[in-house]
Write a structure and sequence with these properties.
heterodimer; A: mainly beta; five-stranded antiparallel sheet; 3 helices; 39% strand; B: alpha+beta; Immunoglobulin-like; five-stranded mixed sheet; globular
Chain lengths: 490, 203
């Protein structure tokens, strides 16, 4: 009997100690990234950049990526993966006779798993937008002909999908744009057209922004209930970039300030409220080619509808990535925070939110290289709504950030955006990578990294308490053999 | 009557807008010069015709006497890069188009190459949307196409920094704590044994 009690006591002590160890241990948040992969790599000199991504809510592991090709001629490509991004295959896009090409595409899935591809066709000697088209796919087969969403001069189109609801936002440039060598001219306004049948038919477009506001590069987000939110870059008084007064040549940026703005619709995009300022007084980071400009990104927390906006601003070592949030569907915004306080250039961020609320922000970082040429891709994850971040480099090799459109004119555009997909147990980051290219070939590819962000873990009181009880009980059981009831005598 | 007038005005405005918009296609927004070759592949020393579009016109526009020249320079064709060997020069017509025969370098290696077209404007700046590029494959010794390869090797980059994680620290701490737990258990288990032995010796 004594032997049994001693054995049980020792076992209880051992188990209690183990529980104390486990319950008392803490683990900092961390991110582990896997080796990089590429999306549908082929030989050649095409410059694939500015990816847009979406995953199919009805089929786990199915995702699509669409990218812009900006050299040797304007085009696009769309690829699908059904194994979580491990392998990719190209999706054929049959262009309507009226569409000379596909440029700067966006992708989304509806709730039935139909893939929607939005693209701008450009034509003429200088590649003006001819129209914006939406192509639906079912089982990788085009579901009917593409639907024309806009007329001529519809720039920077963006796609938002929620179930069967579809919204398309774009910048409608005025006809006086023809007088600008490479920019935009008034009157112009952001527009939204909406569909409630999965993108088969669209409403008449409604204006979102005021006609005198120099806005560009909109992103449309479907909110809760009937809300539609549009966010965009407001160039303030920066006509140097908006009207391309720099004639697409490099040089110092305008002295003015940019801002980030948003509009909210409570009636499914039929009308929009007043302009809300996401962030003001942004130092212009560099000259841009506005029609290939940096698109600020917006994301939405699927749990509570909180919106996030991310962008970069500042010059030189002070060029940083920022994040702001809104809890009222974009009507007001909390003060922005810097995502990563690090010397050097951080640019072109994207944001997404997992279904359990983790906020992922990915961006280019040139801070580790003194010449400000080689770029890496950094993923920053937050488990407290953007209050604090854990970061890691997800690109396994740096690459030349000068390779891209405009590099010869010293106004390089490596891309206009990157993309992030957030799942509860991993993040997927897609970016424009130039490691397979040179300044001479101009080649760019879409690279991706899968990363596993692990949340921080604190002490667990229940395990600690149970462990203490087990240890105490075990010691009593062991010690009770010699002097029952006198633990201290041990 | 007022409604009809408004409708007519709206239609006229819309028609003017659409007309001007399509007219805009002939003007500028984001230029991109493009380049094509008459054949995708050829032998060293062989001839190929290069055509292109989207360049600045090399023909001077009508300008006031004494005004600065407005014509862009001729388009310069290079082999394998903007600083590569020059293959020839060709003036862009008023529409910005070029067409010229070039000879593939005699010493070109089999495989994938790129023909690059550069151009400067009247101010000596690189013309927006240039350089234009076209891939070209040089055949092997027997006129056979070379095995597919990437047009450029991966340039050297710096290794990426690794992400920080606390796995090693956590495992170490767990080991220390387990050792401590085991030691405590060992001590607790041994003390009654010694007591039992003492009791046996005294009896």
């Amino acid at each position: 009997m004594t032997l049994v009690r001693r054995s049980a006591g020792c076992a209880a002590v051992a188990l209690g100690v183990a529980l104390l160890v486990v319950g008392g241990s803490t683990r900092p948040a961390a991110i582990e990234a896997e080796p990089n992969r590429f999306v549908d790599v082929r030989p050649g000199i095409e410059a694939h950049n500015s990816p847009a991504v979406a995953f199919d809510p009805s089929r786990p592991g199915v995702m699509a990526v669409a990218d812009r090709v900006s050299s040797p001629r304007f085009s696009c490509s769309v690829s699908l993966s059904d194994d979580g991004g491990g392998s990719w295959r190209r999706v054929g896009l049959d262009l309507p006779a009226e569409a000379p090409n596909c440029f700067w595409p966006d992708v989304a899935f509806d709730d039935k798993g139909s893939l929607l591809v939005l693209y701008t066709s450009t034509g003429g000697r200088f590649n003006l937008p001819v129209s914006v088209w939406l192509q639906r796919f079912e089982a990788e087969t085009p579901a009917g002909p593409a639907v024309q969403v806009t007329g001529p001069l519809g720039f920077h189109s963006s796609l938002g999908v929620d179930g069967r609801r579809v919204a398309v936002a774009w910048l409608q440039a005025g006809p006086t744009t023809v007088d600008e060598p490479a920019g935009l001219a008034p009157p112009h306004a952001l527009m939204v057209a909406r569909s409630d049948d999965g993108g088969r038919r669209f409403s008449s477009p409604v204006p979102v922004s005021e006609a005198d506001r120099l806005v560009a590069l909109p992103t449309v987000i479907m909110g809760t209930d009937r809300q539609v939110i549009v966010g965009a870059l407001d160039l303030g008084d920066d006509l140097l970039d908006y009207e391309a007064g720099h004639d697409s040549q490099g040089g110092p940026p305008d002295d003015g300030r940019w801002r980030l703005v948003a509009w909210t619709s409570e009636d499914e995009g039929a009308s929009f409220g007043p302009t809300s300022i996401v962030a003001d007084d942004l130092v212009i980071p560099q000259r841009i080619i506005v029609n290939l400009g940096p698109r600020p990104d917006f994301g939405r927390d699927p749990r509570n509808g909180r919106l996030y906006a991310t962008w970069d601003a500042g010059q030189g070592n002070d060029r940083d990535v920022f994040l702001a949030s809104s809890d009222d569907a974009g009507k007001t915004w909390a003060p922005p925070r810097s995502v990563l306080r690090r010397s050097g250039t951080q640019t072109l961020p994207s944001v997404s939110v997992s279904s359990d609320g983790r906020v992922d922000v990915a961006f280019y970082d040139r801070g580790r290289e003194p010449e400000d040429v080689l770029a890496e891709v950094v993923l920053a994850s937050s488990w407290d709504g953007g209050g604090s971040f854990v970061t890691t480099t997800v690109s396994d090799r740096s690459f030349d950030a000068r390779i891209g459109f405009g590099s010869a004119e010293e106004i390089p555009v490596i891309a206009s955006q990157m993309a992030t997909l957030s799942e509860p147990d991993r993040s997927l980051v897609f970016w424009t990578d130039t490691r397979k290219g040179t300044i001479d070939t101009g080649r760019q590819d879409i690279a991706l990294a899968s990363a596993e962000p692990r949340p921080p873990r604190g002490r667990r009181a229940a395990l600690l308490a149970f462990g203490v009880l087990l240890v105490a009980g075990g010691l009593l059981a062991v010690g009770g053999q010699r002097r029952p009831g006198n633990l201290l005598a041990l | 009557m007022r409604t009809a007038r408004k409708t007519v005005s709206a239609i006229a405005g819309l028609a003017a807008f659409v007309g001007l918009s399509f007219a805009a296609v002939a003007y500028a927004c984001t230029s991109l010069a493009t380049l094509n070759t008459s054949a995708p592949a050829g032998n060293p020393g062989g001839n190929v015709t290069v055509t292109g579009a989207g360049f600045a016109s090399s023909q001077a526009a009508a300008a006031a006497p004494g005004a600065a020249p407005t014509a862009a320079s001729p388009v310069v064709l290079h082999w394998d890069g903007v600083a590569g060997p020059e293959l020839g020069q060709v003036a862009a017509d008023r529409a910005g188009n070029i067409s010229a025969p070039i000879a593939i370098p005699q010493n070109a290696t089999a495989g994938n190459h790129v023909i690059v077209a550069t151009q400067q404007n009247a101010k000596g700046q690189t013309v927006g949307g240039t350089p234009a590029r076209a891939p070209f494959q040089v055949n092997g010794p027997n006129g056979q196409a070379a095995a597919p390869q990437q047009p450029a090797a991966e340039p050297n980059g710096v290794p990426a920094s690794s992400g920080s994680n606390g796995t090693g620290i956590a495992i170490g701490a767990l080991g220390v704590m387990l050792f401590a737990g085991g030691f405590v258990t060992y001590v607790v288990a041994r003390r009654p044994s010694r007591s039992a032995g003492a009791r046996a010796g005294r009896s």
